[in-house]
Amino acid sequence: MKHCLLAVALIILTPVFAQTERDAGVLTQVSHPALSAGPGLFSPASPGPYRVGRTTLSYIDGDRDDRPVVMDVWYPVDAADAAGVAPSTYDLVFAALESPVALATPAVSQNGPFPLLLFSHGNLGIRFQSFFLTEALASHGYIVVAPDHAGNTAFDLAFNTLEPFEVSAVNRPQDISFTIDRMLERNNLAGDEFLGRIDPARIAVLGHSFGGYTTLAMASGIDGVTADVRVKALIPIAPASGILSDVQLISITKPTLILGGSADITTPVDPQSSRPFELLSSPERQRVDLNEAGHQSFSNICIFTDTLVDVGIDPALVAFLLGNAAEGCAPELMPIDVAHRLTQLYVVAFLKTYLDGDARYAPFLTPLFGSGKGLPVTIFVPE
Fold first, then answer.
1. Closest to 256 (Cα-Cα) out of 306, 204, 291
2. Closest to 306 in 3D by CA, of 319, 320, 293, 294
């Protein structure tokens, strides 16, 4: 059976990646959809069967001193409802970036209920910092919600409204639980566009850097904030895991995929990825290091930087607001489009396998698949 599944996977993703020379031809085209490999099975490295919608929601958390929680939602859209809809636009304050994929608030697909994913941005980041991934996940049939963590965003940095790091560490997991609450309310609210579209039994959290910590804290609990038992799977990306104690990490039993970059100097894979991988109690855990990827290789920082510089913003100001783009865009790193494609491959395959229970995607996660296809990754699995 395992060999059969692997054969299916090889058909679907042949070829996915070319040799890893650092040029524009590093990626090859992936057939989409791969109907010959089985009905309903799409390459996890390619777009899924849905078009993608995006909307922005705003709430106030009255239980936490009227804390604002602004969230973006990416969601599956049926092809008929996408016709003629304008692209969604990401507001960079000084410039607008038109999405190549997401559309501005079309109707949510009627094919739900869909799993619910929560994305937590990095330290001084922004809710749509990794739209390459949130859009891709929506195309594969997930409703993805990313809140701004007020007091810890790029806008807070610009307007001097930052909250202390230790305060944000406690607020962040509460922001995610609050976001889950609001989306599940909408799932049961008559007349709401998300009515009946969310499967409350399939909820996962993923996040980058400080958001990787947030992801783990959702299952471990932190400083009086209890673990959220509704969360069924975790994907910490370049996680700042050192904030959590050994005891907290050992308490985590949920299926977990830890992604990192071997050239990350902000949250180095050793120990920020290696330590949680060794300590977590979940037998369903995996660590994937992207060879020569940096800390920002998991974000859209390159296109944000280029967009702002192109409209005349001082590069020094851009660097102040966005952080060090060299950690994702430097020529010595893995090309960022390759990093994005690999990230999508492993995240989609993991979610399909462990959140959706679709064993056909499990072979994509094996070390044999990665080495057999020559992918620039190093994979660790429990002994």
1. 204
2. 319
Task: Give the separation between CA 46 and CA 31, rounded to whole angstroms.
Answer: 8
- Output the 3-class SS for 109-158: CCCCCEEEEEEECCCCECCCCCHHHHHHHHHCCCEEEEECCCCCEHHHHH
Q: Residue 180: which of 297, 292, 73 has the closest Cα?
A: 73
- Domain spans, the chain: 43-360
Name residue 103's beta-bridge partners: 53, 87
Query: pTM above 0.85?
Result: yes
298 closest CA partner among 365, 381, 232, 238: 238
Tell me how long the chain is.
383
| CA 172 – CA 205 distance, rounded (Å) | 12
Question: How far is 348 from 117, CA to CA, in rounded Å?
Answer: 11
User: Residue 28: which pLDDT band, with cuts at 50, 70 and 90?
Assistant: very low
Residue 27 DSSP label: B
Class of residue 60 by CB neighbours under 10 A (exposed 0-12, middle 13-18, buried 19+): exposed
Strand order in the sheet with 377-380: 87-91, 96-104, 51-61, 67-77, 143-147, 114-120, 198-208, 233-237, 256-261, 285-290, 377-380
What proportions of the chain, in percent to the nearest 5, are helix, strand and coil?
A: 40, 20, 40
With tokens 């299926």, the residue in question is 255
Least reliable range by pLDDT among 13-27, 70-84, 291-305, 344-358: 13-27
* Whole-angstrom distance, CA of residue 100 vs CA of residue 124: 25
Burial status of residue 95 (CB atoms within 10 A of its CB: 0-12, 13-18, 19 or more): middle
| CATH number of the structural domain 43-360 | 3.40.50.1820
Region label for 244, one of left (φ > 0), alpha (ψ between -120 and 50) or beta (otherwise): beta
Q: Treating both helix axes as pointing N-terminal to C-terminal, what angle do 165-187 and 210-220 enclose, rounded to 10 degrees? A: 70
Banded pLDDT at 154 (limits 50, 70, 90): very high
Q: Which is nearest to 73 in space by CA: 123, 168, 137?
A: 137
